[in-house]
C-alpha cells in the first residue's frame, strides 16, 4: 500500500500561542486552500494541550474555554476532513510546568551544577527520564483514541544543552542519565569524554524515535512520524538566525544529504516565516524565504511554511511568494512525485558539519555547472557509491570507500588506500602557510601537507619556498621545491592542501578551476551551456522523466538574498536521449536540436522536464 506521505504534499504550520486556542478553523482552512497547502501542522499537546486532556500530567490550554466545543483539535480535524486537508499534530515534550516539575524531579534536566533549567516558568525535561520514556506514549494514545490525526511531529526532542536564548547549560546529570550512562558524565563540550556522551545521547534519541515510530505504526499506520533522518519523514527546518553567518545553500545541502542517503524517504522542509525566534513578529525577507522553498523542491523535498500564530494575526510579507511557490509545487505534483537525485558526482560532507573546505568544493562545482549530490561522511557505507562517477572528499582524514572504482578527488588531510601517499609534515596554521605559493603563483590558505607520492604517481603544482613578503626590496627568493600540490594516479587525485577553503575564503577563480578540472578529468560531468556561473543546475529524476532545476543565484549577496537579475536566453546541452522538453515556469515547449535547447529568460528559477 502506498502511504499518503509518499506522494508530494505541502504543509502549513501554525505554531500557536496559548491565546490562539479560540481561532476560527474555517478561516484558517480557507487560507490554507488558497495558499496551496493540503496539510496543516497544528499544535496539539505536550507543553499545552489544545484539546480537553484527562491526563493529570498534561495541562489543558485555559483559552479552550473560548470555544463552544472546548476542543480546538477536534474542531480542526472535523473541518479539515470535509475539505480533504490532512491534520498533523505538533507535540512538544521538552518542558513541563512548575507543579509537575516539583512532583516529578526525576523527569527534569539537571545541569552539572545541580540546577534545573527553567525558561519562562517552564522546566526542561530529559529524554532519559520517564516523561519521555513512558508518559509521552500515554499522550499519543489519548490523542489517537480521540482523533484520526494524519501524523505527528515532535519539537525540540533533545538533551537541552542549549535553551531558547542560546545559553549553554552543559550535559544533563539527572538520575536517569547517571543510571543509563556507563561511567562519569562529562560536564560539557570541553570535558573529557564528551564525544562518548554524544554517542550515548544520539543512541537514546534514536531508540526513542524508533519506539515512537513502532507505536504509531501499531496504532495508526497511516500516521507518520516527522523527525530526524531515521523517521518516516525527515525534518529540516530552514531558518535564519541573528548572528549566524549566512550560508546561501544551507537548505539545498541539508535536503540533498537526506535524499542521497535514503532517496525514497520523504523530506519535509519547514521554512520559517520570521527572522529569528527573538524577532518572531518580523517577517523574513521574501527573496530569502523564496530560497528555502526553491532549494527544497529542487532537491526533492516537500515544502512547508511555518508561522507564529495565525495568518490573520501575523501576515508576514514573505507569505505571498511562499504561496506562489507552494501552488507551483501543487500544480506540478506529477513532476515532483518520486523525485530523486540523479547527479553523477558526489560531494561528501565532513562529520563535524559544513566546513569551509566542504563549502569551497560545493561552490566550485555549482559555479562550473557540475551537478552533484551531498552525502554525510557517516553515511558513506549506507549508500551504493557505484551510481557515482566521481566522489569528492574534502579534508576528511582517513576514508574507506570499500570497493568503489570510480574517480576520487580528495583534498587536505584526506587519506584513501588507492593513493597511499606518505605524509612527511603538515603546515596547519595561518602563520605556517602565510606567503606559501605553488608554481604558477597559486596561493595556499589554510593547511598544506608535505607528502611523498607513491611509485608511478604523477605530480604537479610544486610548492615554492617561502620568501619575505616585506618590505618590497626583500621580496625575492621563491625557489621551486619537490613538494607537490597535486598528486594523480589513474582516476584518483589528491590536493594535499585546503584548496576548497582557499576558494571559499579568498575567492580566486584559479582555485575553483584547478579543482573542477580535476573532477572532470577523473570522470565528472559538467553540463555544456553558455549560462553564467550564477545559474545553479540541479539534476533529478521522477515519474515525469529527467527533471532539471535552474536556480538563479545572481541575488546571492552578503548576508542576504537580493532580487535575482534575469538571465538569458541561453543554450543548454541535455543528457543523451532527450527528445522533448517542457519548461514549467515559462510554460513553453522547447525544441531539441542535436541535444541542445534554447532556454527562455530565467527569472527566479526554471524547471525543465525532459523525456
TrEMBL record:
UniProt-listed CDD domains: A4_beta-galactosidase_middle_domain
Highest taxon above the source species: Bacteria
Entry-linked Pfam families: GHL6
Classification via SUPFAM superfamilies: (Trans)glycosidases
InterPro entries reported for this sequence: GH (IPR017853), GHL6 (IPR028212)
Protein known as: Beta-galactosidase trimerisation domain-containing protein
Species, as recorded: Kribbella capetownensis
Native organism taxonomy: Bacteria, Bacillati, Actinomycetota, Actinomycetes, Propionibacteriales
